[in-house]
Amino acid sequence: MLYPADIRPLTGLRFVAAFWLLIFFFWERFDLGPRDQIGLVAAGTYGVDLFFILSGFVLAHVYGPHVEAKTFSWRNFIWARLARIYPLHVACLLAVVAIWAAGNLVGASFKAEAFVVDQIPAHLLLIHAWGVVGSDGWNFPSWSISAEWFAYLTFPISFFVASLFVRRPWLGVVWMAGIFALFAAWMAHHGIELMDMTWQGAILRIVPSFGMGIALWLLGRHLHLPAGVAGLGVAASTIWIAFAASLSWPSEWLWPGLCGVVFFLAETSKANQKPVLASRTWVYLGEISFAAYMVHLPVDIAFYQIVERLVGEPKGGVALVAGALALVISIVAAAIAHAVIEKPARNWLRTHVPAFMSAKPAK
């Protein structure tokens, strides 16, 4: 049975991934102890890998049929993806630069390695997760957007590889799991966990997850699970993630659970299922999830510069209240950024495609 055109639960899942990441980021601001002591909180950083799998699945769903019908335009695809991520990326980068510059004027202190001016061109070119910079910097969560950009550029290759198994799509899933295991073993040989890579070369981190998303779409697009099985799959995958995280297992053990959540949640969107995370509220939150992820660092920097000047470094109950307030402000700021910057800029760019990026010859 085919997926619906709009797989709404996956949009809702995007906010779950973003909120998981925000809890990971703000946890130590709450002054509730090291986040490493709470496995599920510490594992929040792997919400990024959930995004990577989701991205491969959704793009395969939207563009895969066009690739198969040979009506796919790589140039139009790239422009559409650039319109989706670049305006907000630049806006948040400029916000961090402005906060840094203003802070320097009033004597605020910043970590020098996080604000290296020479790295700004790499951020503007979206290549700062390709191993070309020496540290995380500026709006550092955008390393994952740099990795996504690499996945967009190579989408036809990823889809081609996954579609080699179109007659036996389960083999494609096995293949991508093998690629993930190979990459993880290679990184472990160099003393690095694959799912911890950011500026060092996150393009390696995204390849197997993005490819698995495509493979899972190919597996599920004509599949029809019995009623209830999809929901049980979501529950089992979620429990697996919580179990592996709580026991602080190596990050790679969470990956199958992340894949399972995406696959089975998509299955709940089919006929005769009761989809979860598909309400209007969840879908809206999913729509602002990219903005929530991108704006939380500028909000954190600006908010805590003000708080520390007013009350010093917050501790105890004050820290908990301040952290909760920063989290709420991040989500509110995300809603504003989505409405004022992300959505209108995306729509404008998609209706103003330059001739050299259009599939149609210029007249």
From TrEMBL:
All copies of domain Acyltransferase, residue ranges: 11-333
Record-level GO BP terms: polysaccharide biosynthetic process
Source organism per UniProt: Candidatus Phycosocius bacilliformis
Keyword Protein biosynthesis: no
Keyword terms: Membrane, Transmembrane, Transmembrane helix
Transmembrane stretches, start-end: 7-27, 39-64, 85-103, 149-166, 173-192, 198-220, 227-247, 253-269, 281-306, 318-341
Keyword Transferase on entry: no
GO function terms (MF aspect): acyltransferase activity, transferring groups other than amino-acyl groups
Name of one Pfam family that matches: Acyl_transf_3
GO CC list: membrane
Protein's name in the database: Acyltransferase 3 domain-containing protein
Signal peptide: none
